[in-house]
Amino acid sequence: MVVLDLQVLMENEMGEEWMQTNVDRLSSEISTRETSLLQLVELLGPVLLHNKPQNRCGGLLFITSIIDKLSEDFLDTEEVGLLVNFYTDRLKDHHSSIPHTLRGLSFLSKATNLTKDQLE
């Protein structure tokens, strides 16, 4: 189960220390399979779908920072496919989210379980 104070992200009030502490903690929990990346994405749904671009961007930065800490062989083929689709859809979002989107896609391009079909 993912434990995270969503209110901080919903109000776009996360500072560098909050971000680093929670990214480190959750990436560790995901790496040891205490929680799943899917659970985190589901929890972040209200932030990632927020009507304010800066809030969506904060949620995207958060999840991208976590993914960036995972090893290249951590995600299975299905997870890579879901994340490729997710980040590809983010390319259509507000221009402020593009740097975090490209960072996420860059990580996914190195994922061991990325298939040719997922690139099309």
Output the structural class.
mainly alpha
Cα distance spanning the termini = 33 Å
Could you give the order of the helices and strands?
HHHHHHH
Morphology: globular
- Tell me the total number of β-strands: 0
- Count every helix, treating DSSP H or I runs of 4 or more residues as helices: 7
Helix content: 55-70%
What characterizes the major β-sheet? none
Uncertain segments: none
Word description of this protein:
With 120 residues, the chain is mainly α. The protein is built from 7 helices and no strands. The chain has helices at residues 6-10, 16-31, 37-43, 45-48, 53-68, 77-90, 98-109. α2 (16-31) packs across α5 (53-68), α5 packs parallel to α7 (98-109) and α6 (77-90) runs antiparallel to α7. The mean pLDDT is 92.
